[in-house]
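Thread amino acids onto this structure.
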């Protein structure tokens, strides 16, 4: 599949690309448009990536926990796919090969076996597949925490009503839900511990190994929603003991929407059953309309996937693998600590625990959104308001630098001075 650069750009709509650029400030319900033209900090580029992220020169983008910008090579790969589809639709075989390439690249990213990697549509779908396989019944319990994503809170509250299971929720203390706090909730009727590896609320990083050991000691399993972690944090999945993990591709994996890598530990592959059936899970066709089904994680791919998103994810995985998640983690977590320390020195109430090893920082801004939102827009800052607009969540990504953090701290400093 190849097109010239001229064909490429002719097919790409600049207006469409601009339309998805987002806004200065957002929340979980969406983002409001901004016509701000701001002086954006430049400065250093430790990972040598800023030129591949147009957003880095157009705004002070600290909103990767909401939606991660795609690097230009991933965008180019996606447009190439779309251009080929418009001119000479690609063969299914080529698209399926790209899907396999994504599985292989993701397996390298988290150091798993390729057979442990399936592709589903979202993190929510992955957790639903797991839960529907566990034969939960009245008297069983599932242990989660209040730093988990909303899908899980909805899921287990509904299962409590329909199946009579007990949902036990570990409450955070100063933004922390420790393994010791989980241990107080887990017993021999626990079937599953479910956590967000990195919390979307405050970036708290769970100790996966400790939670897996706790679950397994009681005959339970550990599920991790990793949408806020994979791509930001270096992960060697095997030693953690995690049984099931799903991550969307549109945040720290810097891809698009509609494809989510789904990890199932080989030792528990038979535990998880496909919750729907279709042609994509067929391993071998037998006589008389009989079929064998894949016995690895490919069994979850029951239908035609979102191929454009697969090409985009393939490009972003190439990019992340080339930069290295060890370098990304070191860079972004260091920036988050710089931000945390600066906010603390200014007197802000930071919801993210000190020393936390992720790139997400949440804090109470201590003023009215209506007052500070125009200031953020004028400075070209993009972030998320959270917790009924009382908190701000930011997350420096690989393309951010110290100048970005310091520029943001200059803004928040003004808020504290105005309040004092």
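Threaded sequence (420 positions):
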């Amino acid at each position: 599949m190849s097109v010239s650069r001229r064909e490429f750009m002719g097919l790409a709509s600049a207006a469409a690309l601009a339309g998805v650029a987002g806004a200065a400030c957002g929340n979980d319900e969406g983002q409001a448009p901004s016509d701000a033209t701001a002086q954006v900090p430049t400065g250093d580029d430790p990972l040598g990536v800023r030129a591949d992220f147009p957003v880095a020169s157009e705004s002070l983008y600290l909103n990767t926990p909401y939606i991660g910008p795609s690097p230009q090579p991933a965008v180019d790969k996606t447009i190439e796919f779309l251009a080929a589809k418009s001119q000479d639709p690609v063969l299914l075989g080529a698209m399926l090969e790209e899907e396999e390439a994504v599985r292989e690249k993701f397996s390298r990213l988290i150091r798993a076996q390729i057979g442990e990697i399936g592709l589903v549509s979202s993190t929510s779908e992955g957790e639903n597949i797991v839960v529907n396989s566990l034969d939960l019944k009245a008297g069983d319990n599932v242990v989660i925490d209040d730093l988990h994503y909303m899908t899980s809170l909805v899921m287990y509250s509904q299962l409590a009503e329909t199946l009579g299971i007990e949902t036990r929720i570990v409450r955070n203390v100063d933004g922390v839900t420790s393994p010791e706090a989980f241990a107080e909730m887990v017993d021999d009727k626990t079937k599953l511990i479910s956590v967000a590896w990195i919390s979307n609320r405050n970036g708290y990083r769970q100790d996966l190994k400790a939670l897996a050991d706790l679950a397994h000691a009681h005959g339970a399993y550990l599920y991790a929603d990793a949408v806020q972690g994979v791509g930001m944090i270096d992960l060697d999945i095997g030693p953690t003991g995690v049984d099931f993990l799903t991550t969307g591709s549109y945040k720290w994996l810097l891809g698009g929407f509609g494809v989510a890598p789904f990890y199932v530990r080989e030792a528990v592959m038979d535990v998880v059953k496909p919750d729907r059936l279709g042609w994509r899970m067929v391993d071998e066709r037998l006589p008389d309309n009989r079929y064998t089904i894949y016995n690895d994680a490919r069994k979850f791919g029951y239908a035609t996937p979102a191929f454009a998103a697969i090409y985009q994810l393939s490009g972003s995985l190439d990019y992340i693998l080339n930069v290295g998640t060890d370098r990304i983690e070191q860079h972004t977590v260091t920036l988050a600590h710089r931000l945390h320390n600066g906010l603390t020195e200014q007197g802000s109430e930071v919801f993210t625990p000190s020393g936390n090893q992720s790139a997400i920082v949440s804090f109470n801004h201590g003023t009215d959104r209506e007052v500070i939102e125009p200031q953020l827009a004028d400075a070209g800052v993009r972030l998320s308001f959270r917790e009924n607009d009382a908190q701000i969540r930011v997350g420096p990504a690989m393309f951010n630098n110290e100048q970005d953090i310091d520029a943001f701290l200059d803004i928040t400093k003004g808020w504290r001075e105005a309040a004092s």
